[in-house]
Amino acid sequence: MKVLFINIPKYNVIDANGIEKTSKSIGYYPPLGLLSLATYLKDNSEHEVVVFDTILEDSNPEDIKQKIVEEKPDIVAITVYTPCLVDLITLLKIIESLDKNITVCLGGPHTDLYTKESLNYPGVDYVIRGEGEYAFKEIVDKLSKNEKVDGVNGISFLNEKKEVVSVGLPNFIENIDELPIIDMTLVPFKKYNSILGTEGMTATIATSRGCPFRCTFCSAKKLGKYRMRSIDNVVREVEKCIALGYKDFFLFDDLFNITDERVRSFCEELLKREIKIKWHFRGRVNNLSFKTLRLAKETGLQTIMFGIERGTDEDLRLLKKDINVEQIKETIRITNKLKIKSGGNFMIGIPGDTKEKIEQLSKFICDLGLDYAQVGILIPYPYTDIYKEGLEKGIIKTDFWQRFAENPSKDFMPEVWTENLTREELSEAVRKIWRKFYFRPGYVLKSVLSVRSMADIKNKVRGLLGVLGM
Ligand code: B12
Ligand code: SF4
Fold first, then answer.
1. Residues 160 and 199 grouped into a single domain
2. Is 94 a pocket residue for ligand 2 (Cβ < 6 Å)?
3. Which of 51, 79, 104 has the most ligand 1 atoms within 8 A of CB, as the residue to mutate?
4. Of 79, 249, 360, 470, which is least surrounded by CB within 10 A?
């Protein structure tokens, strides 16, 4: 059997202002879920595996058509995110128009949350819930032998009466070290890069799955218990990437520094194996000691992107961030002292937000000493506490994600938290903070002085164009 894994194009991704303008400014990151499924299938079967990343290839619908015609897959596998539904439907219609015999399998955060709705999209045969490596291989094996797949755990489909049949609970892989290390040669890996990268191409590695925290704006908690890969397993992936020519690494977990000890063990392993890389991670402002960060700097740590969100303890408590302002200030102070670059993600439009609070946040962001800041309007995602609260209080008028899941349409606009401020006021506030942050004289000078390579200059220019909305 030939399986074509397709990463959905990004023509019409929904953001807080409706359809987001495709931004090339943050870089290209590999579709880790699809690549993990494809690697597992390739390593454990004789099936033919092709991965097509339409975002990386900047493919238009004609290119997609051509690829499907060329590859003639028996099965197409797609990961679905709720904000990407309009493009999913475009893709499904292309597949359907070319060959109705192609078996279409969907998985990912959206289909886990909206299984029934997903089964009604054009030409969809199966939804596979949860982590699909084992279940999907079983399905492909069975289909290749013309056997029934309706007993595979985690599978959902429509029966003759168009009723949803779901077998068992979503799949969950307890020991994620069992999975093979992702094979980046399945995609044109040299093209992936990050705005943080200094060496042209950047390897993206996930060292864990799920999340142990409970932030009120995030649906990750609905999507699986937190599990870590062993440090040995992660460092083996680093070595595999080095063999492919990567020098720059981004550990892409929401929080790599789940404990200070985990970061230290990673660094010690790099030193032990004499691995010299540049690396970045996404993390939290707690669980990072000066000692560990100094060691990390020694092993090539360049940047940490922190999920900070807000600048008062009251707001942080409201968002259930489990961090406080003191920790934020202290950690940024340490990173600056060690000359490790730091970035912060922030959001406005949280419950109770006012012009004054946003003004205060803007000052907080500019005074922190960060190298990068990313500010956005909170989108209440489905199955998050904030979404539920908004619906209960009537601030969110309708279950708009449900409507969108049932009928994805281009003119869809997600509701945002407009208790005290309109969407336009929130958008203007975001632009104001960005401008204030990036055009501070001190910041511009610091950026110019800290340029590390040609790739770094290119990334800075890309980032700036992104900020300016170009
Ligand atoms: C890293 C990450 C990203 C990265 C990389 C995403 C990628 N393409 O791999 C980047 C920054 C690019 C990203 C972008 C977006 N992300 Co994101 N991201 C994450 C994060 C932190 C981890 C995801 C991850 O790597 N998981 C590990 C992999 C292995 O799991 P997986 O991809 O889910 O795949 C497994 C299963 O889902 C299943 N599966 C998936 N697809 C299929 C297909 C088949 C056929 C089968 C059988 C099984 C199957 O099997 C896979 C292997 O076990 C999560 C939060 C979290 N902690 O989970 C948010 C999260 C997934 N992202 C989210 C969103 C909304 C987005 C964006 C739409 C944001 C935006 N507006 O632009 C975009 C989507 C753009 C795109 N097309 O990629 C939401 C999804 C919510 C939802 N209801 O859909 C999450 C849950 C965070 C949140 N806000 O709640 N994201
Ligand atoms: S925002 Fe990050 S830390 Fe918070 S629950 Fe979601 S994935 Fe976890």
1. no
2. no
3. 79
4. 470
Kindly report, residue by residue over 10-42, the tens digit of the pLDDT: 999 888 765 554 445 567 889 999 999 999 999
Contact 223 CB / ligand 1 (< 6 Å): yes
For 106-109, the CB contacts below 8 A with 24+ separation are 106/77, 106/78, 106/79, 106/80, 107/33, 107/37, 107/77, 107/78, 107/79, 107/80, 107/132, 107/136, 108/33, 108/78, 108/79, 108/80, 108/81, 109/80, 109/81, 109/82, 109/219, 109/223
Q: Which atom of ligand 2 is nearest to the CA of 211?
A: 8
Phi/psi region, residue 206 (left: phi>0; alpha: psi -120 to 50; beta: rest), is beta
208 and 295 housed in the same domain:
yes
The structural domain count of the chain equals 2
Q: Which CATH number do you get for residue 311?
A: 3.80.30.20
pLDDT, tens only, 60-111:
999 999 999 999 999 999 999 999 999 999 999 999 999 999 999 999 999 9
Distance 109 CA to ligand 1 centre (A): 6
From the list 22, 252, 34, 223, the residue with the least C-alpha distance to 110 is 223
Shared domain for 356 and 220, answered yes or no, is yes
Contact present, 378 and 389 (Cβ < 8 Å) = no
If one residue of 209, 213, 256 were mutated to test the ligand 2 pocket, choosing by the most ligand atoms within 8 A of its CB, it would be 213
Q: How much is the pLDDT for 21?
A: 46
Atom of ligand 2 nearest to the CA of 212: 8
Low-confidence ranges of the chain (pLDDT < 70): 17-26, 198-199, 222-223, 442-470
162 and 204 together in one domain: no
Q: Does ligand 2 come within 6 angstroms of the Cβ of 211? A: yes
In a domain, 133, yes or no: yes
Ligand 1 probe mutation, 32, 167, 178, most atoms within 8 A of CB: 32
Residue 53: give the domain boundaries: 2-166
Q: Is the CB of 218 under 6 A from ligand 2?
A: yes
- Which one, of 13, 8, 63, 14, lies nearest residue 33 by Cα? 8
**How many whole angstroms from 81 Cα to the centroid of ligand 1?**
7
pLDDT for res 449: 58
Domain boundary among 104, 132, 166: 166
